[in-house]
Amino acid sequence: MRQAWRVADVRAAEQTLMATLPEGTLMRRAAAGLARRCALLLGDTGGVYGARVLLLVGSGDNGGDTLYAGAALAARGAQVRALLLTPDRVHLAGLAALRRSGGFTTTDLPARADLVLDGIVGIGAAGGLRPAAAALVSRLGELRGRTGQRPPVVAVDVPSGVAVDTGDVPGEAVTADVTVTFGCLKPAHVAGPAAPRCGQVELVDIGLGPVLVTDPAVRVAEAADVAAWWPRPGAASDKYTRGVVGLATGSARYPGAALLSTAGALAGPAGMVRYAGSAHREVVRAHPSVVAAPRVGDAGRVQAWACGSGLGTDHAARTELRSVLATPLPVLLDADAITLLVGGEHAEDLRRDAPLVLTPHDGEFKRLAGEAPGADRMGAAARLAAWTNAVVLLKGDRTIVASPGGEIWANPTGTAALATAGSGDVLAGLLGSLLAAGVPAVRAAVAAAYVHGLAGRHAALAGPVTAPDIAAAVRPVLAALLG
Ligand SMILES: NC(=O)C1=CN([C@@H]2O[C@H](COP(=O)(O)OP(=O)(O)OC[C@H]3O[C@@H](n4cnc5c(N)ncnc54)[C@H](OP(=O)(O)O)[C@@H]3O)[C@@H](O)[C@H]2O)[C@@H](O)CC1
Ligand SMILES: Nc1ncnc2c1ncn2[C@@H]1O[C@H](COP(=O)(O)OP(=O)(O)O)[C@@H](O)[C@H]1O
């Protein structure tokens, strides 16, 4: 698992650590790690000696790190130029170090650079980039390196222009090939539109770990986590002990949602799928292993319900939703079931002890919460989770999972290939299967999003992706993941 901390927590840990160290130690550690990574990058494109390195330097310590790293590269023979955004306010010791090593300052963007270091702002940034910085960033595409290509951009700590705590990108921002960050990851590295702006994220250990005592703001599952959580059948398993998932999905108008959620559920770890709804004949025809009935009340015993994908919002749908919520079982509500919650008619039904998972896309989120997720998707998901006492999986490029207790996860495997009709139905079935197999709700949501994303990527290897392709790709993805 990877973890990221908010700026205030990083600052507090930094203060604790600095109190025990000679002044400037952390910046020297940060700059040394940064310079090493830059040298490696230059090694890939002709070496450090003689390379033209452009430093974009703001007025704070982020600029200081950049100047010291530039000094280290200049000492190895690189031609280092520092473009100072605020020449009257600059990290003076860093600038002196650069000059001592043979580096220069410049006032405008040069035509050529083999490497760019973005040290305009780091975790001290407030709001979007100011006009001068934004104008500079918008011109970075003009630069060319010794191979005639656009030079690699290394962001120092975070790409300038991103909102560090939320991962939002409010305006012009740097798009980095590599981000070298210090001490720990920050939310912008893993969540929101900022995450893809970071490129490859590399962490330089500056000794912050032992003093970083607060809970992380956001967690990111890795393959090993998902593999460890994913239930496997054992010698003593039977179809019931593996868990039975119930699906209350689809309708006469949307029979496809029934089929897709079933396909998702069949690829999950549960031992059996029961379908309840008006598409029961189609479901059995397409998936003979499914036991199907027209209504939730006739479905038979299950260990968890997934409800709502393509269910419709009429009276019959409302009755099925009520039946599902009346059970003492874990329940996932997707799509139309979320829409049915709007207006509060099911407020009483939602007072339940068993886990509840909501999987809204932005439109459903807005209907339920009364406002769109906005720039802070993690905060928005966390508020809805606390308000509904449910695990909220907020869909998107970096799907967010938030628990009522305040735990937040960002999914790293998302791909635009998933943006296809019925993709969410597959996810609902898969997640329902994990719940039925006994996986705790947060882990089930995190693992389902992770595998769903991998399945989208796998399916995309064969061309344009439709939802059945995503469902079909879950099995090969799991085969690789679970070994
Ligand atoms: N924490 C750690 O453990 C360690 C941290 N380290 C490093 O310190 C960095 C943090 O440094 P920091 O605190 O000096 O802030 P920083 O990011 O340089 O920016 C502040 C300056 O930018 C300006 N500015 C603000 N907003 C702006 C905007 N929107 N657009 C344009 N300009 C804007 C603002 O100007 P002002 O508002 O004062 O006019 C202010 O002068 C951190 O990211 C890491 O690299 C490492 O050295 C070692 C360990
Ligand atoms: N641009 C995107 N990048 C990555 N994932 C996306 C993107 N757009 C949608 N998704 C994912 O695709 C799925 C779409 O779900 P949903 O909107 O419920 O579709 P449907 O209702 O058609 O089944 C979600 O898992 C969501 O996270």
UniProtKB/TrEMBL annotation:
Quaternary structure, from the entry: Homotetramer.
Annotated function: Bifunctional enzyme that catalyzes the epimerization of the S- and R-forms of NAD(P)HX and the dehydration of the S-form of NAD(P)HX at the expense of ADP, which is converted to AMP. This allows the repair of both epimers of NAD(P)HX, a damaged form of NAD(P)H that is a result of enzymatic or heat-dependent hydration.
Any Pfam family matching the protein: YjeF_N
Residues involved in AMP binding: 395-399, 424
Obligatory cofactor(s): K(+); Mg(2+)
Biological process, per Gene Ontology: metabolite repair; nicotinamide nucleotide metabolic process
Catalytic activity: (6S)-NADHX + ADP = AMP + phosphate + NADH + H(+); (6R)-NADPHX = (6S)-NADPHX; (6R)-NADHX = (6S)-NADHX; (6S)-NADPHX + ADP = AMP + phosphate + NADPH + H(+)
Gene3D superfamilies found in the cross-reference section: 3.40.1190.20, YjeF N-terminal domain
MF-aspect GO terms: ADP-dependent NAD(P)H-hydrate dehydratase activity; ATP binding; kinase activity; metal ion binding; NAD(P)HX epimerase activity
Record: residues binding K(+): 62, 118, 160
Binding-site residues, (6S)-NADPHX: 61-65, 122-128, 157, 257, 310, 361, 425
Record text on cofactor binding: Binds 1 potassium ion per subunit.
InterPro entries: Carbohydrate_kinase_pred_CS, CARKD, Nnr, Ribokinase-like, YjeF_N_dom, YjeF_N_dom_sf
The YjeF N-terminal domain, residue ranges: 10-214
Entry-linked PANTHER family: ATP-DEPENDENT (S)-NAD(P)H-HYDRATE DEHYDRATASE, ATP-DEPENDENT (S)-NAD(P)H-HYDRATE DEHYDRATASE FAMILY MEMBER
Organism encoding this protein: Actinoplanes teichomyceticus
UniProt cross-references to NCBIfam families, sorted A to Z: yjeF_cterm, yjeF_nterm
EC number annotated for this UniProt entry: 4.2.1.136, 5.1.99.6
SUPFAM superfamilies in alphabetical order: Ribokinase-like, YjeF N-terminal domain-like
Name of this chain's protein: Bifunctional NAD(P)H-hydrate repair enzyme
Record-annotated YjeF C-terminal domain positions: 222-481
